[in-house]
Amino acid sequence: MGHRNNVTEFVLLGLTQDPSAQTALFVMFLLIYIVTVLGNLLIVVTVLTSPSLGSPMYFFLANLSLLDALYSTVFSPKLLKDLLSDRKTISFSACMGQIFTEHLFAGVEIFLLVAMAYDRYVAICKPLRYLTIMNRKVCILFLVVSWTGGFSHSVIQLAFAYSLPFCGPNIIDHFLCDMYPLLELVCTDTYLIGLTVVASSGANCMDLYPLLISYGIILTSLKTHSQEGRRKALSTCGSHITVVVLFFVPCIFMYVRPVSTFPFDKFIAIFYTLVTPMLNPLIYTLRNSEIHNSMRKLWCKNLTMQRSCYKL
């Protein structure tokens, strides 16, 4: 299949054509984006400035929060701009860039969630060796592997998308560029390409199985812990399992299926690109007393500094 491309831009149909609905969606998504960025950055700043949050668990949490802020920023500004525009277009190069960054951050997050599951396994099942096993070098190695795995996955997706022959139709019934909507515009048979995309994306989604196995082992080992130990472990693991479910269920629904598009794909995409990054900081901080105390100290410290500046 030679590379034939007569398309320089794509027209996005967006979520709706109703002006009043677009205004309401703009306000809602703007609030979601602001909460997402501020909430995730607050966690990053809290972890970086609090000596009590120096454990590997919070190291991974800070990286996950930074990743969620970046992931949301890939899509939200463009979506907000399009909701105020009559003609919603995206250049071919920008479309390819959106595909690359989407799969990059999603791929990194999958590997990071696996690393966080392993961290919880070591902390609960091997507590006496926890700091020895999960030392700083191991944490950084997990982070490097996560970015390397996400980058490799996104390069494969970009290579497939860039090689597709577009020779006419350029209207995408979506608010973002993604592989399945793009395959509908290709002027050749996409059966084999679709299988490859499903295999590549589905392989990442299948990382859910080692996560389930690790948490199965953790829950089994909790039988030997005290009631207080079980409560604390279940609280931490419960937050992580909730985030895993929110991330992987849409992933499996979108990519572990035959190549086709459905009308509700847009709403699923909204959930995993906008809503999930906003919920993650709330889920991790809702019942975590250590983060609550660190945020309170950070807030009080800032207020004290402000009062000192006013007195000067």
Describe the protein:
By secondary structure, this protein is mainly alpha-helical. The protein has 11 helices and 3 strands; from the N terminus they run βααβαααβαααααα. The protein has a 3-stranded mixed beta sheet. α1 (19-49) packs parallel to α10 (265-286), α1 (19-49) crosses α11 (289-311) and α7 runs antiparallel to α9 (227-255). The longest helix has 34 residues, at 92-125. The radius of gyration is 22 Å and the shape is globular.
Give a quick summary of the entry.
The protein is mainly α and 312 residues long.
SSE ordering: EHHEHHHEHHHHHH
Low-confidence stretches: none
The assigned structural class equals mainly alpha
**Number of beta strands:** 3
Strand order of the largest sheet: 2-1-3
- Determine the strand fraction and express it as a percent band: under 5%
Number of helices: 11
Gross morphology is: globular
Give average pLDDT, whole number: 81
Evaluate the radius of gyration.
22 Å
Distance between the termini: 72 Å
Largest sheet: 3 strands, mixed
Helix content: over 70%
